[in-house]
Ubiquitin thioesterase OTU
Amino acid sequence: MKIQIRLRAPSGQARLEVDDEATVSDLVKLIGEKTDLKRFSLKYGYPLKNLDISPESQSTAIVKDLQLRGETIVVAPFDTDIAAPQPLAAEQKPKLVPKGIEPDETSLEWPDRYGFIVLRVMPDDNSCMFTAFGGALHIDNPSVVLRRQVAEYILEHPEKYSKVILGAEPSLYVSRIRESDTWGGAIELSILSDIYSVEISSIDVKSLRVDQFGENKESRVIILYSGIHYDRIAFCTDLSYPVEGDVTIWPTKDEDVLKEAKRLAQRLQRLHYYTDTTDFVIKCGTCNWNGQGMIDAGKHQKETGHTDFREMKI
């Protein structure tokens, strides 16, 4: 007898038909062929739990004994530069919804893939960009880890990241980016794309422009930029599932996911989920100068060379 199983992998959704008398080894081989992955772990159920695919289990266990009929199996790859999924640390647990926006407005049903494109809102702690990207790759303590990696990368590539590019002496820039209250932006996204060999597509809510960091990469992560804040775009099969089961990495050839993410951004644009950077109050972390908007900040940077800007909470 055949049983139907749904797969959720970095490449998206798929359906699998397997003989219930097949071994776990047969199932693993079939999933590998379906996803083009060589090494991976499998999770299923709610809350997610590991499916035993150890060598011993593969040689002795039978698929029908696993009671997988109608289940969704989450496939987590091991054989790329991207870290295998791990439980999210407490500090990177996304908020459920942005302030002032209803939960059903932060997701869009995607019938073709039997699930939803959803906004995962990052903490407003000046490390949102690092948390948004790091969480997509399941990196524990992303703010600390990614800031350190960016700093080391800059110092290792002085010909590429000079004072002209950084707007400050590299040693000073590196010192600042290590601090937990310094914003990350385009420079950091470009560097992280190189470090992890993944394209980062950043969708601007206000303009709906897509900035892509990293060329000729096989995988893509999508984040959402709302003026002074970054959030993460994810896919899930059920909105009640925990974020640990999200799909957050896709092949760059999968343009459909980018279209769906832009469609969600368009909804958020209508809800005015962005900050108009022309009129918010900003502070220079170097000299405590205060100004209004990024235009003033740009003038101050040109006059002083300072780049450590933060939003002032009023």
Summary: The first helix runs from residue 24 to 35. The CA atoms of residues 41 and 76 lie 5 Å apart.
